[in-house]
Design goal:
Ribose5P_isomerase_type_A, NagB/RpiA_transferase-like, about 30% helix, EC 5.3.1.6, alpha/beta, Ribose-5-phosphate isomerase A, single chain, 15 strands, Alpha-Beta Plaits, four-stranded antiparallel sheet, Rossmann fold, 2 domains, Ribose5P_isomerase_typA_subgr, binds ribulose-5-phosphate
Length: about 220
């Protein structure tokens, strides 16, 4: 395992300590969340009773393969704790998410969650968000309108591709990765993106994380509200 993966695993091990018996647990998406799901599966094998709420079809398949019982997102009224990854975070706990394309379900899950814990390797901490382009999930019919609106906000949008075709999300939409340069006002930009018709969700997560647990070497550093 390389150093980044070790940091992800250390952060995941620390994060699962916050899970309690009978919790409803949001299960994140991506290579960092993968470590948390593995740790949760181990706890379940050892007698912990939880129900998981997946943030993507990939995560649902992984969780089921590891023996974690799931609840469908549309039936859940509240989630006790979620452990998810991020593409970037700052010390104010603002995040960019959606590198894996699961941002819409991740945001719904985060919004339903009492204790949203983000786990990350040390490469994810930034002074200012924006080096990682902001993923925007777009209803395909609205693509040109959304690109124009992003340009009005000084954002340069590019349709995400995979295997020479448009990347399609679990919700049958497309992703536009938007470059705004370094973001000075994450709250303002998030609000502006929320107002664009045809945008289902964007990857700026403001005021949603309760803590970030970052692996650094063999230690963890916790950033909390
Ligand atoms: C998926 C996400 C992921 O949490 C984010 O992309 C980080 O992924 P990784 O842990 O693989 O670096 O938001 O939509």
């Amino acid at each position: 395992m390389d150093n980044r993966d070790l940091e992800k695993q250390i952060a995941a091990r620390e994060a699962v300590k916050f899970i309690r018996q009978n919790d409803i647990v949001g299960l994140g998406t991506g290579s960092t969340a993968f470590f948390a799901i593995q740790e949760i599966a181990l706890l379940v094998k050892n007698g912990l009773k939880i129900k998981g709420v997946p943030t993507s079809e990939n995560t649902a398949a992984l969780a089921v393969s590891l023996g974690i019982e799931l609840l469908p997102l549309e039936e859940v009224k509240g989630i006790d704790i979620t452990i998810d990854g991020a593409d970037e975070f700052d010390e104010q706990l603002n995040l960019v998410k959606g590198g894996g394309g699961a941002l819409f379900r991740e945001k719904i899950v985060a919004s339903l969650t009492k204790n949203e814990i983000i786990i990350a390797d040390s490469g994810k901490l930034v002074k200012q968000l924006g080096k990682f382009k902001v993923p925007v999930e777009v209803v395909p019919l609205a693509l040109n309108y959304v690109l124009q609106q992003l340009a009005e906000l000084n954002g340069k949008g590019e349709v995400r591709m995979k295997d020479n075709a448009r990347f399609i999300t679990d919700n049958h939409n497309i992703i536009v990765d938007a470059d705004f340069g370094l973001i000075t006002d994450a709250t303002g930009l998030a609000e502006s993106l929320n107002r664009i018709e045809g945008v289902l969700a964007h990857g700026l997560f403001v005021q949603l994380a309760s803590k970030v647990i970052m692996g650094k070497g063999t230690q963890t550093i916790i950033y909390a509200k």
